[in-house]
Amino acid sequence: MPVLARVIVLNVVGPETGTMSMEQVLDMVRSLDGSLVLAPVAGSDAPEIAWGDYFFYYAPDGNVPRNAQPYATIVTKDYPDDARSGLDPAGRWRVNIHVGQSTLRELTGTNQDDVVPRDVAEVDVFLPHPVYGVLGWVAVVNPGARTMPTVLGLLRDAHADEIRRVSRRS
Question: Which of 5, 46, 127, 144 is the one with CA 20 to 30 A from 111?
Fold first, then answer.
């Protein structure tokens, strides 16, 4: 059986973020009913680009849902089509959450059609996801004291939304 996951604890310490850890986010999501945190590692069946990242699903049976996207992710590195957040240096990571258009607008002050130049590498700030913002995804690089409580609430809400979507499909 292939290795599917491992746990990495990454503490982020800095004057602009305070001390927050990725593990706080992972622990909270894992505590949600029916939660599945997929954490691909080297040697798994996942594409190499996904190794070290985290994908959050509602999966009460413990299996990754077929034909479903995660409702949130944590990425720990730049992707070929998504490098503007500058995640390659050690200690940088980004949480991405599907929140829908109205919450995206409330958090960032922008609409999906707005073309507003932004520094998407800024830490502890809600920003439209650099690639999927138009689809209602919000992103926070290195969540800290300003954003972590809201990030955790948004993750709970996204999980509850996914439960409702799954229930409607069944």
Answer: 144
Position 169 scores a pLDDT of: 86
Give the model confidence (pLDDT) of 82-122 as tens digits: 999 999 999 999 999 999 999 999 999 887 666 666 888 99
Cβ neighbors of 15 (< 8 A, separation 6 or more) are none
What is the CB neighbour count within 10 angstroms for residue 17?
19
Task: Report DSSP state, residue 143.
Answer: -
- In the chain the first and final C-alpha atoms are separated, in Å, by 30
CA separation for the pair 28, 169 (Å, rounded) = 26
Query: Which of 67, 54, 137 is closest to 93 using CA atoms?
Result: 54
E-state strands within 15-93: 18-21, 35-38, 54-58, 72-75
Interatomic CA distance for residues 28 and 158, integer angstroms: 13
Contact 55, 95 (CB under 8 A): no
